[in-house]
Amino acid sequence: MSNPNVQVYGKKNPNLPFHPAVRAGDFVFLSGQVAKDEDGNMVSGTIELETHATIKACQRILESAGCTLDDVVKATIFLEDARDFGRYNGVFKEYFPEGRLARTTVEARAAISTRIEIEMTAYKPLAK
């Protein structure tokens, strides 16, 4: 049974039992995103390249929910290799120069071949 107060956003993969983003009240929760281009093709390369592509994938889904990176209040980052932290962090700072969000970074392998996965939570009050 669906909750009428919950909206879903993004293009859902028919083979997976979740949506790219879900709005619950004033919060939008993004499922973990990986380095994909606008057409859904995997982007593979350096940690810098994959970080840019992953954040841009997050941006596209946020936009579908009426949000921007400025609305992000929490990000959780999963790195395949913790030694990539400094290089990924340099790219992350380009998108969040003021660092006005909470963030957690852990080392973990993704279920698919990728150097980085990012999930985000945005706060964007519903229009009344």
Describe this structure as you would to a colleague.
- The chain has 128 residues and is an alpha+beta fold.
- It is 23% helix and 27% strand.
- It is built from 2 helices and 6 strands.
- Strand 2 and strand 3 form a beta hairpin.
- Helix 1 runs parallel beside helix 2.
- The mean pLDDT is 93.
Determine the fraction of residues in helical runs and give it as a percent range.
10-25%
Tell me the distance between the termini: 26 Å
Structural class: alpha+beta
As residue ranges, the low-confidence spans are none
Largest beta sheet: what is the strand line-up?
Answer: 1-2-3-6-4-5
Give the DSSP E fraction (strand runs of 2 or more residues): 25-35%
Query: Tally the helices: what do you get?
Result: 2
Task: Assign an overall shape.
Answer: globular
Q: What would the average pLDDT be, to the nearest integer? A: 93
Reading the helices and strands in chain order gives EEEHEHEE
Outline the biggest β-sheet: 6 strands, mixed
Rg result: 14 Å
Q: What oligomeric assembly is this protein in? A: single chain
Number of β-strand runs: 6
Keywords:
single chain; 128 residues; alpha+beta; six-stranded mixed sheet; 2 helices; 6 strands; 23% helix
Indicate the topology.
Layout: E1 6-9, E2 21-24, E3 27-30, H1 47-64, E4 72-79, H2 85-95, E5 102-107, E6 116-123
Parallel strand pairs: 4-5
Antiparallel strand pairs: 1-2, 2-3, 3-6, 4-6
Helix pairs in contact: 1-2
Short overview:
The chain has 2 helices and 6 strands; from the N terminus they run E-E-E-H-E-H-E-E.
